[in-house]
Design brief:
Order of helices and strands: EHEEHEHEHEHHEEEEHHEE
CATH architecture: 3-Layer(aba) Sandwich
Strand content: 15-25%
Distance between the termini: 27 Å
CATH topology: UDP-N-acetylmuramoyl-L-alanine:D-glutamate ligase
């Protein structure tokens, strides 16, 4: 007989694209949720033909189908946190906004996926305004990397002080918390900056681990934050724990023929 006395498992929802290489997107989110003891559900926005080196094509799903996926999940499951990733176009973003507007009490972590590490465009330029004006207001936290910050503020942070300035500016401008990720700066110490509207900031420091492909690290961090919130942690504690989890994925990499990659297994 099944053991029904165990503690209820929290549920999180990822709304994102599928990575055929398995290291980012929906695949990374589900691996992260599972590693952190969270039941993962999904709404797939598009499929991609990609590997850690490149994206050669993107096939968006219909906005109505995206909405149907979200509705079926939210109608059935007690979703404790939502993470959004690659949304690709304005129509899909609007479908997501329409779906989440009725679920405003669920924390939403927005990873504003715009450009891949290999330089492929993952968000159509005309969709950026819809993302910032309609989805950002629903977010509990937005987690841009420095390339995405450049799109949002028209300049690329070059040092820690400019990252702090960017995080505080974005938090004030969009009236929600921003975690600006500093991983694209040189150096062995990586610093992410968390800023809240009209308040001070704090930093999260980790060490760069050389020799490990970082493909999927942004997806994994955002989904780890969502997972920790689903587990009942407050935002700052969730970010701290998510950083520790991400560091661990680098310290114990999966070794494949092409090299070392993030290891979400525990």
């Amino acid at each position: 007989m099944a053991d029904l006395s165990s503690k209820e498992t929290p549920v999180a929802l990822s709304i994102a694209g599928s990575d055929s290489g398995g290291g980012a997107g929906i695949q990374a989110d589900l691996l992260t949720f599972r590693a952190l003891g969270v039941y993962g559900t999904t709404a797939i926005t598009c499929t991609t033909a990609q590997n850690p080196d490149s994206v050669i094509s993107v096939c968006p799903l219909s906005p109505d189908h995206v909405k149907d996926q979200i509705r079926q999940v939210l109608d059935y499951f007690d979703v404790r946190a939502i993470k959004t990733g690659m949304l690709f176009n304005a129509e899909i973003i609007r479908a997501v906004v329409d779906s989440l507007s009725a679920s405003s009490k669920i924390p939403v972590i927005v990873d504003p996926v715009m450009v891949s590490t290999s330089g492929s465009v993952l968000l159509q330029p005309e969709a950026i305004e819809i993302l910032t004006k309609e989805l950002f207001p629903l977010a509990t936290l937005v987690t841009p990397n420095l390339d995405e910050v450049k799109v949002l503020i028209k300049r690329h942070p070059k040092d820690l002080q400019s990252i702090v300035n960017a995080a505080r500016s974005l938090a004030t401008r969009f009236q929600t918390a921003f975690l600006v990720k500093g991983g694209h700066l040189p150096g062995n110490q990586l610093t992410d900056v968390l800023a809240f509207p009209e308040s001070d900031f704090r930093t999260f420091n980790t060490q760069r681990i050389s020799g490990v492909n970082s493909h999927g690290s942004g997806c994994s961090l955002a989904s780890a934050i969502a997972a920790e919130i689903a587990r009942g942690n407050q935002l700052e504690e969730a970010i701290e724990k998510a950083h520790r989890f991400l560091q661990d994925t680098f310290l114990r990499p999966v070794i494949l023929k092409k090299g070392a990659f993030l290891n979400h297994f525990r």
